[in-house]
Write a sequence for this structure.
């Protein structure tokens, strides 16, 4: 084999969890596979997002839960040990080293090339390696892009002077800022406001909309807002930033309404953009910087011969690691089937089609209270023209909930598809509700008939009793 030109069945660009999964699945299908990565193996999720953020949030949520339990509250009355939390965060993020991931790829016979990979026409990828060399790769069957996203920060006067945080800095900072301004009202904004306030920051949230978590059921945003404010976070709605400056180490924030705010750091959690600018998309007729639109088998639309795939955040279907790895499992199986001349099972809920992307996407917000949801929201269902019944229940009326808090506050909502008599969506907000999410996901993805769900008996006294109460409320 020529040292600078190599041919594989499958080339994967991007070695985050999604890229790793699709590469492993392709290799398991008997296809020679190489993965290309210019940064750390494991990507944003492993080092600066999922693992790091949850390591910051776990002690925060655990302490909040403990403070609600009689007999335990006084034992956890003091502040968190910020140094210990940050040290544990670094351990959980593998100290931003990726040797174990390289060993994992080697163990499953997936080749690794470190460098910047760009498309160079159909089925070709050119890789610039760290030593200044170039390797040209050719794919017999597929090129898969799993390059993820980066923080989308609005263009504001003075932004380049303040060294603003994005999610990367927010999950990897090595000290607690005295004052932190958080711009945004989505999941990242909520979780980072929760974490840094508990670690000792004075946190102010500047939210353009009139509520938090706008893509979820409205009660979830209201309960989280109450929790943040009770914890000491200053949450300001319908507020936007006009300009920024850093003077004497402080960030000076001018607001659009004429107000001013001073902080030590400012975090922008205002959305994501695809990592496709420097990917060589123009060599195959696509526009650099665009999201990669795909069909339900993850072939990129508008590319002849069907050799180009995109999985994970870069296709904008569901910007969640667990959903991206679901896509990777499907894409790897699809590529293997097509390479072997097999029939692709693209029926609803089939082996080679991502039905869950449309109907059963689960998500958790790690705040206090927690929020867990799967499937459609009320707004989604109405927008799509579904006939639904909204069933609400106060979680404080569930006996098992009071094991989490003497004075429990929370809510559950189940959406019933009246035409199919199945669960179309579920949202829970309250302490401990993440434990309910997988059962909700099974109910939605499995399209379990309501009459059958009635026979799934929850143990007493557990928070899972909410299922019985929702069904009783539905039956009346």
């Amino acid at each position: 084999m020529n040292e600078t030109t190599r041919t594989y069945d499958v080339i994967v660009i991007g070695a985050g969890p999604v890229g790793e999964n699709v590469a492993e699945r392709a290799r398991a299908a008997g296809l020679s596979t190489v993965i290309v990565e210019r940064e750390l193996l494991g990507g944003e999720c492993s080092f600066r997002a999922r693992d790091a953020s949850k390591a910051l949030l776990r002690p925060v949520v655990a302490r909040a839960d403990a403070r609600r339990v009689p007999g335990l509250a006084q034992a956890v009355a003091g502040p968190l040990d910020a140094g210990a939390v940050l040290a544990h965060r670094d351990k959980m993020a593998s100290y931003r080293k990726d040797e174990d991931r390289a060993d994992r790829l080697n163990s499953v016979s997936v080749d690794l090339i470190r460098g910047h990979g760009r498309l160079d026409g159909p089925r070709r990828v050119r890789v610039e390696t760290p030593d200044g060399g170039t390797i040209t790769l050719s794919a017999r069957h597929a090129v898969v892009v799993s390059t993820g996203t980066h923080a989308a920060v609005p263009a504001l006067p003075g932004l380049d002077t303040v060294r603003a945080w994005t999610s990367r800095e927010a999950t990897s900072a090595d000290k607690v800022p005295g004052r932190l301004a958080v711009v945004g009202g989505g999941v990242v904004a909520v979780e980072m406001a929760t974490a840094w306030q508990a670690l000792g920051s004075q946190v102010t949230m500047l939210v353009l909309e009139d509520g938090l978590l706008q893509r979820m059921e409205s009660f979830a945003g209201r309960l989280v807002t109450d929790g943040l404010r009770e914890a000491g976070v200053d949450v300001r709605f319908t507020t936007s930033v006009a300009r920024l400056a850093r003077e004497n180490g402080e960030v000076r924030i001018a607001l659009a309404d004429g107000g001013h705010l001073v902080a030590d750091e400012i975090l922008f959690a205002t959305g994501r953009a695809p990592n496709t600018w420097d990917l060589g998309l123009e060599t195959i007729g696509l526009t650099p910087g665009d999201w990669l639109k795909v069909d339900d088998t993850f072939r990129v639309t508008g590319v002849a011969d069907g050799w180009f795939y995109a999985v994970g955040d870069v296709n904008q279907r569901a910007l969640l690691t667990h959903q991206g790895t679901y896509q990777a499992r499907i894409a790897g199986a699809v590529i293997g089937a097509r390479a072997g001349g097999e029939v692709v099972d693209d029926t609803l809920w089939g082996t080679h089609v991502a039905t869950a992307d449309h109907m059963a996407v689960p998500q958790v917000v790690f705040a206090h209270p927690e929020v867990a949801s799967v499937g459609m929201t009320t707004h989604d269902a109405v927008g799509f023209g579904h006939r639904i019944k909204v069933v609400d229940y106060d979680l404080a009326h569930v006996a098992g909930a009071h094991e989490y808090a003497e004075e429990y506050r929370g809510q559950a909502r189940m959406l019933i598809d009246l035409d199919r008599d199945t669960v179309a969506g579920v949202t829970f907000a309250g302490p401990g509700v993440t434990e309910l999410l997988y059962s909700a996901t099974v109910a939605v993805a499995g399209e379990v008939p309501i009459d059958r769900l009635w026979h799934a008996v929850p143990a007493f006294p557990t928070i899972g009793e909410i299922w019985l109460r929702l069904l009783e409320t539905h039956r009346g």
The chain has 14 helices and 21 strands. The mean pLDDT is 93. The first strand starts at residue 5 and ends at 13.
